[in-house]
Amino acid sequence: MLTKFGYDLQLRSLMCDRIPLLVQVISVVTMSWIMGLIIAWRLAIVLIVVQPLIITCFYIRLVTLKSRSKKAIKEQDDSTKLTYEAVSNLRTIKAFSSQDLILKWLEKVQEGSQKERNRQLWFASIVLGVSSSIKKCNWGLNYWYSGKLVTKGYISPRQVFQTIIILSNTSRIIADAGSMKGSTTHSKV
């Protein structure tokens, strides 16, 4: 009975966390697309087409940084546990002259984590670099295409900046909401 009650509470809590987030994202996207299309529809269509790629870049950056920080904390905890054990058993270690053994264990723990850390840092650096490059290329595309539209007289510079700012912020908001999704879940339901 209590298990079912706990399950129902988790499900309700999960739904109460997710539904407002979903409503917020849908309303932000709808309003920004409508505003962008009203202000400068030619530019807005191009920005809307590339928006999924930009959302993916923001999301990958956020997820990569979060996972990297979790791994770093875990590695630090492993070293701290061994150090704590050594300090709490200092008399025993000193009585058996095991200082060298403990130092070798600590070096081994840190060496194993160092190799993994270097591999993860390379991976994270490449992912973050590619993500950042794609976002910069998107800004270049935005301003290049908007410059062409302005020179042809289809839109004004004011409309360019309004449309770009509205739709670019929407991509970031969607990615932030997507990366928060994992933190709103309390357990598997």
UniProtKB/TrEMBL annotation:
Coiled-coil intervals: none
Sorted UniProt keywords: Glycoprotein, Membrane, Repeat, Transmembrane, Transmembrane helix, Transport
One GO cellular component, as annotated: membrane
InterPro entries: ABC1_TM_dom (IPR011527), ABC1_TM_sf (IPR036640)
Gene3D superfamilies, alphabetized: ABC transporter type 1, transmembrane domain (1.20.1560.10)
TM annotation in the entry: 21-39, 45-64
Boundaries of every ABC transmembrane type-1 domain copy: 10-180
Molecular function GO terms recorded: ABC-type transporter activity; ATP binding
SUPFAM superfamilies: ABC transporter transmembrane region
UniProt family annotation: Belongs to the ABC transporter superfamily. ABCB family. Multidrug resistance exporter (TC 3.A.1.201) subfamily.
PANTHER family: ABC TRANSPORTER DOMAIN-CONTAINING PROTEIN (PTHR45136:SF2)
Protein name, UniProt field: ABC transporter type 1, transmembrane domain containing protein
Organism, scientific name: Trema orientale (Charcoal tree)
Upper lineage: Eukaryota, Viridiplantae, Streptophyta, Embryophyta, Tracheophyta
